[in-house]
Amino acid sequence: MEVIVIETPQLGDRSYLVHDGSVALAVDPQRDTDRIEAAARDAGVAITHVAETHLHNDYITGGLILARAHGASYLVNAADPVAFERTPITDGQTVRVGSLTVKAVATPGHTHTHMSFIVDDGEKQAVFSGGSLLYGSVGRTDLVAAADTVGLTHDQYASVRRLAAEAGHDAALFPTHGFGSFCSSGPAARARSSTIGEQLAANHALTDPDEDHFVRQLIANLTDHPSYYAHMSPANLSGPAPAELAVPESLDAAELTRRLDDGEWVVDLRRRVAFANSHLKGSVSFEYGSGSSFTTYLGWVLPWGEPLTLVGSREDIESAVRDLSRIGIESPDAAVGTEPHALAPQAGLASYPRVGWDGVLTGRAPGDTVLDVRKADEFTAARVLGAVNVPLHELLLRLGDVPAGKLWVHCATGYRAGIAASLLQRAGRDVVHIDARFAEAAPAGIALDAAAA
């Protein structure tokens, strides 16, 4: 048995291809299925089975697309009311994939119908746990409905224990979530690999002997999750279509100017430094780059379903189109180029100051506001003295809560603050982007709130 990992760091998820050298099972594939198909070609194996651990809340699945393309059996929990043909599978059922045995184990908690899969080649085991048992923690339990959260958290506690008991101590563990995904909860570790035995020794869901204590602690530590999650499960129930990944024909200058003038969402993918220096007036900054949270924050912040135009290099636009397709943002338009004035000579240009914490010390005037756009739990833990908190994902809905006057905008690293500064400037506000890490504020001489320092 060999397990090939297909990472999607933009969403904090992993998909897997497990094979015996001849045939393969794909687990939790993303919508851009070409990556997992390339892995199968490179390994010289045929994809005969595709399995979903659950109806995903954070991305559009590629499972149906992949199964249809390869004539593969599509293993989906028999209890899921999906609108397409699948191979229904139930708790305890086993399936042969070449020389491998695949056993389904019901592990409710992340969702009511969550399944994990234990794959055995006769010598070793691999556990594909989806959003059940993660490295260091478990999948969050509040994504189905508020009224179900307590019950699902109790289910999660029981499920991971059952899964650990059914698998061998040396079984390798392969979760789908937990690598930066908002589907994880608690102290999920960013480990590269683990085993069931290691989790039995270190995972709080397995080491806490008090179920009620575990439930209270997990629920208390649940934080906000992206609003676009609400659209993922319904799309996965209905059966997603293949994504269109081609870069669209570039808009001409007149059409791009019209969209800016009409207040449509024009998203600049360039680095936030370049955006602050010069950008098309009315555009907003969602910096695209390796390791960024571009997909999550664009899907979370901008109104769902409204027309979208991407501006940037062809390479960045191509990557952004792929990333956005994973959360159901389909075929955005594009203006290819990195010189704002050349893209739309008749459109206005804008800029705003970008400073470090030393610039705040020397430039901030009495009456100016430090606006913290981190999440509420981050703000509670530590904050600049006198700062006002409006989390980025709430900003468009709470513009009326932002104080008048000049705004010095910060977050934890500068990334979210760059988005927020552009949104605020688009709304007519006077902004300064504090492009610095919050951890550097106190060493730079910035006073923190006494209760949080």
SSE layout and pairing:
Elements: E1 2-8, E2 13-19, E3 23-27, H1 34-43, E4 46-51, H2 63-70, E5 73-77, E6 87-89, E7 94-97, E8 100-106, E9 115-120, E10 125-130, H3 149-166, E11 172-175, H4 196-202, H5 204-207, H6 211-220, H7 229-238, H8 253-261, E12 265-268, H9 272-277, E13 279-280, E14 284-285, H10 294-301, E15 308-312, H11 314-325, E16 333-336, H12 340-343, E17 349-350, E18 354-355, H13 357-363, E19 369-372, H14 376-381, E20 388-389, E21 407-410, H15 415-426, E22 431-434
Parallel strand pairs: 3-4, 4-5, 5-6, 10-11, 12-14, 12-15, 15-16, 18-22, 19-20, 19-21, 21-22
Antiparallel strand pairs: 1-2, 2-3, 7-8, 8-9, 9-10, 13-17
Helix pairs in contact: 3-6
Describe the fold and architecture.
This protein has 453 residues and is of the alpha/beta class. The protein has helices at 34-43, 63-70, 149-166, 196-202, 204-207, 211-220, 229-238, 253-261, 272-277, 294-301, 314-325, 340-343, 357-363, 376-381, 415-426, and strands at residues 2-8, 13-19, 23-27, 46-51, 73-77, 87-89, 94-97, 100-106, 115-120, 125-130, 172-175, 265-268, 279-280, 284-285, 308-312, 333-336, 349-350, 354-355, 369-372, 388-389, 407-410, 431-434. It contains 15 helices and 22 strands. Helix 3 crosses helix 6. The radius of gyration is 24 Å and the shape is globular.
